[in-house]
Amino acid sequence: MKKWKILNKRAGVTGKIFKHFHVDVEVPQSKQQTTFDIIATLDWVNILALDQNLDAIFVKQYRVGKDQITLELPGGAIERGEDPLIAAKRELQEETGYTSDQWDSLGSSAVNPAFMINDCHFFLASNCKKTHEFNFDEFEEIELELVPEKELVNKIERKEINHSLVELCLTKYFLRKNN
Amino acid sequence: MKKWKILNKRAGVTGKIFKHFHVDVEVPQSKQQTTFDIIATLDWVNILALDQNLDAIFVKQYRVGKDQITLELPGGAIERGEDPLIAAKRELQEETGYTSDQWDSLGSSAVNPAFMINDCHFFLASNCKKTHEFNFDEFEEIELELVPEKELVNKIERKEINHSLVELCLTKYFLRKNN
Question: Residues of B with CB below 8 A from A48's CB?
C-alpha cells in the first residue's frame, strides 16, 4: 500500500485554535484526484494529576462545542517547539495552581489521522501539591474538582467524564496500572 | 457555574466531512462577548470486531490528516437519525465484509467538547465471520489486517495503533474485561 500524493495545500479558514486547509491528493494506483479538508492545530497535552490522597485534579468549565459544562483533566496546547513535558507542567500550574516533582509519560496519540494533523501527549503527575494561585486566560472560567482515583471509572461509566481524550488518558493510566 | 450564552451561530466553511461555524458567546458573569469556532460533523462509530480465533479485524488505509498509512478499527459516520448500532453493523460489513450476531456497547464519548459537537460510539462485535465482499466508497483503498487480541496492547505501546479514538475503544474493552 502506498501513501497518496499530496499535490497542493490551500489555506481555508483560520479559527482561533485551528487552521483549515484544502488538500488536493492523487490516488497512486488510479491517478484519480480529489480534495480533502484538514484541520491543523498545535499539539495538545492532558495531565492526570494525583495529589497525596490519590485524588485526581479536574477542571470544570463551559465548552462551546457541546454547549455543556464539562469535567476534564487539566491540559492545553503545546506551544510551537515546546517540549511536551514542559507544556504539561506549565498547563497544570496555570489551570490549577498545582505542581508536581514526579512526572511520567502515558504516551501520545494522533488525535484523528483522517483529518487532523495533531497529537495529544498524556502525562501522569503524582504527589501533586497546591503551590500557586490560578492564572486564567481572559476567557477561562474554571472551577477545580477533586475526584478520588477509585471513582474515576464510575464517573466514565456515568458519562460525568466524557471527553474522549480525557477518557483515553485515564484508561491508559488504568491499563498500565493493572498490567 | 453557568453555561455561556450563545448569541449567534454563523456558517463558515463547509468541508466534505464537517461544517465550520463562528459562534458568538457571552460570559454570564462579566457579560464580555467573544467568538469561538466550532466544527460540526456527524456522530461516529468505532467497532472492535473479534473473529472466532480472537483476532481483531483492522483496516489499513492512507489518512491525509497525518499523511500516513494507519491501522484503525473499522468505523465511520452515523447517518443522521440512524441508530448507532445499525451504523456499526453497516460500517463493519461495508469496510471488512465481516458480520456478527453478538454485539455489545462499549459506551460513547464526546470527541472534543471544546470545539466539536459530535460523539463517537464504541462497540464490541464478537464471533465475527466473513460473510460478504468489501464494498468500498469511491476513494477508499483499504487492506484488512488481523491482530491477535493479546497483541493489541503491545501495538498501542509501539504506536502501530495510534488513532486516539481507536485506542479509546480498545482501552475501554480491556478495562471492562479486567474489571
Answer: none
Q: Is residue A155 within 8 Å of A163, Cβ to Cβ?
A: no
Please state, in angstroms and as integers, the Cα–Cα distance from residue B179 to each residue in A40, A120, B158, following that order.
38, 27, 25
Residues of chain B in contact with residue A1, where contact means CB-CB under 8 angstroms, are 60-62, 69, 141, 143
CA distance A31 to A8: 15
Its pTM stands at 0.96
**Contact across the interface for A114 and B39, Cβ inside 8 Å:** no
A36 with B16: Cβ contact below 8 A: yes
Contact A142, A60 (CB under 8 A): yes
pLDDT digits 0-9 by tens, A14-39: 888 999 999 999 988 888 999 999 99
Phi and psi dihedrals of B110, rounded to 5?
-75, 125
Q: Is A115 in Cβ contact with B17 (below 8 Å)?
A: yes
Provide DSSP, B103-168: EEEEEEEES-TTTB--EEEEEEEEEEEE-S-----TT---EEEEEEGGGHHHHHHTTSS-BHHHHH
CA distance A73 to chain B (A): 13
Instruction: Please tell me the distance from the alpha carbon of residue B170 to that of residue B165, in angstroms, as a whole number.
Output: 9
For residue B37, list chain A residues with Cβ-Cβ distance below 8 A.
13, 15-18
- How far apart, in whole angstroms, are the C-alpha atoms of residue A54 and residue A48? 11
Q: For residue B137, name the pLDDT band (cuts at 50, 70, 90).
A: low
Provide the pLDDT for residue B29. Answer: 81
pLDDT at A73 over 90: yes
Q: How far is B12 from B20, CA to CA, in rounded Å?
A: 5
